[in-house]
Amino acid sequence: MAGLDDELTNQLISGDYADFERLVDKAIRQEDQRNKMDKKRKAAQFRAHQGSHQRPRFIPGQQGGPTTMIVRQYLPFNPSNFHQGASGSQDHHGGQPNRGAAPRPPVAPAQSGSSAQAKKETGTKPESCFNCGELGHFADKCPKPRRAGPWFVQARVNHASAEEAQAAPEVVLGTFPVNSIPATVIFDSGATHSFISKKFVGMHGLVREELSTPMRVHTPGNSSTSVQFSPSITIEIQRSPFLANLILLESKDLDVILGMDWLTKFKGVIDCANHTVTLTNEKGETVVYKSPDSPKQEVSLNQIEVEIPVVIEEKNSRKLEEIPIVCEYPEVFPEDLTTMPPKREIEFRIDLAPGTAPIYKRPYRMAANELAEVKKQVDEQLQKGYIRPSTSPWGAPVIFVEKKDKTKRMCVDYRALNEVTIKNKYPLLRIDDLFDQLKGAKVFSKIDLRSGYHQLRIREEDIPKTAFTTRYGLYECKVMSFGLTNAPAFFMNLMNKVFMEFLDKFVVEFIDDILIYSKSEEEHEQHLRLVLEKLKEHQLYAKFSKCDFWLTEVKFLGHVITAQGVAVDPSNVEIARPMTQLLKKDEKFKWTAECDRGFEELKKKLVSAPVLILPEQMKDFQVYCDASRHGLGCVLMQEGRVVAYASRQLRPHEGNYPTHDLELAAVVHALKIWNC
């Protein structure tokens, strides 16, 4: 009791408690009772000081008699005004006796059996037992069996984090589907109840319901109150489903805690030595789960991120030396680019609009860790020769862009420079046009250049325009940088010049991605060698970990390409994009239920989109068109199979077209797209 205040200690010290839990329970109840009485006392004092403020009070008549309204004026606070008998109290109206009202009936002295009535008449509330709710005694003297009480159900959790759980012998940790969502779960025999993380419930939209009685949950060094639970949660263990009602709890990195209530229901046995849990499902079958022993297999909250490196490792398990043809060109796949690229026929240029003056922008504020990353990446690029210190009047601030592997790439915010740059009109090919060349291909290889933009120099007189500002000084770029408006066009020009003799024969390239396609493995051997030879000749380098060779199915530019044709990559629909209507000018962004239904339907349509065949130019094509009051649609087909399809919404003025004009608009739309 050393941590309790003196008043609470005096109230508890004379009691007899069977165990520590009952002592805690009693202390909580006494503290709640004291706080409640303090609030009542303050409220009474406030009312007593109101002076002339009057409040009507109604006294019901007896046996159908008249009902009397008495207006009482509250006197200044004085203990003598709150005596037990009501005979000494007067009714007042403006400080005078209320002669116009019916007299109040006298109140008999309070007897032991009428304490509630006496308390009611004197303005105080009778005390009741916290255990059984009856009058006349307190919880510590209650003759009835103790129960959890009306205020809180008491609960206990021994481990609130995965780090604590892994070091404890009495728990077993694992990852299981919880409502089909991977979750970190522990079996904890020291927990009285079963819990689920509030964050997990919120992230995945699980159902919540209110507890009939609040629960006070005690964790090591802390306690909290839970008022909600998630009903009928399905936990799949060793492919066997188990149901659970889980109470919501704040948890750092544990998604689900299965305590004694759940373990008892399914006859759970925890073997601490072998780290196994044995359960009996609803069919009476025995289910045994063994937790991994190796600390390297510890599970994190985001299990998806743990599994991804395993897949990548499997994909790249083949070494460069083991891949036919590729093994002959190790110099094309260096571990890193360490020097400046060679001087090429094409250099990146920045042509400005006439009369443009230098533009300087101050650096953005950054956190300490971001400043450290800037310093690190600036030093690396200085060593490689990609940048140099500058005295240019130009200057753009640095920003960070997060890459797929969660690392940060330092970029420069060149928006001000781009606005005054004359745009390069070099054409970037349509992706669907690139795929038209793949008819009959069965074997594929994909090559991704390493830091492609850094393999092209900037013209010397344009280098000062690329200056960027940092906390550590002003620098300018000697190689093409991310964020410059004409960078894709210049790099596409370079790649077209390098592979011009192979284009539309067995090479498709789009900026720094190269696809090699062949009708047989014998052809592919020759084609792959020619492409690698060109890369070696022009000192263009690729990143081996992002390349794929000798495939029958390849993902390229958001599509899956096989011998059967081209289909939409299903993984792309995981990225949610607002509906087209919400992107219109002056349109208020409001995501409605209709938008949500449309989005879900769009995902289904994209995933189930038909495989497009690769057309043969010498055969006939058929065009099918249709129109409605909402949009235009058309399909290009060959021999009864889809080559391409297109659609668009109606423009505002087209909504007034008659039916035959709409049909004609659909035909015109198709002819414009496919140049029929």
From TrEMBL:
Residues 78-89 have a biased composition (Polar residues). Residues 37-56 have a biased composition (Basic residues). Residues 31-66, 78-126 are annotated as: Disordered. Signal peptide: none annotated. Gene3D superfamilies: 3.30.70.270, Acid Proteases (2.40.70.10), HIV Type 1 Reverse Transcriptase, subunit A, domain 1 (3.10.10.10), Zinc finger, CCHC-type (4.10.60.10). Residues 382-561 form the Reverse transcriptase domain. GO terms for biological process: DNA integration; proteolysis. Keywords: Aspartyl protease, DNA integration, DNA-binding, Hydrolase, Magnesium, Metal-binding, Protease, RNA-binding, Zinc, Zinc-finger. PANTHER family: REVERSE TRANSCRIPTASE DOMAIN-CONTAINING PROTEIN (PTHR24559:SF444), TRANSPOSON TY3-I GAG-POL POLYPROTEIN (PTHR24559). This is Retrotransposon protein, putative, Ty3-gypsy subclass. The lineage of its organism: Eukaryota, Viridiplantae, Streptophyta, Embryophyta, Tracheophyta.
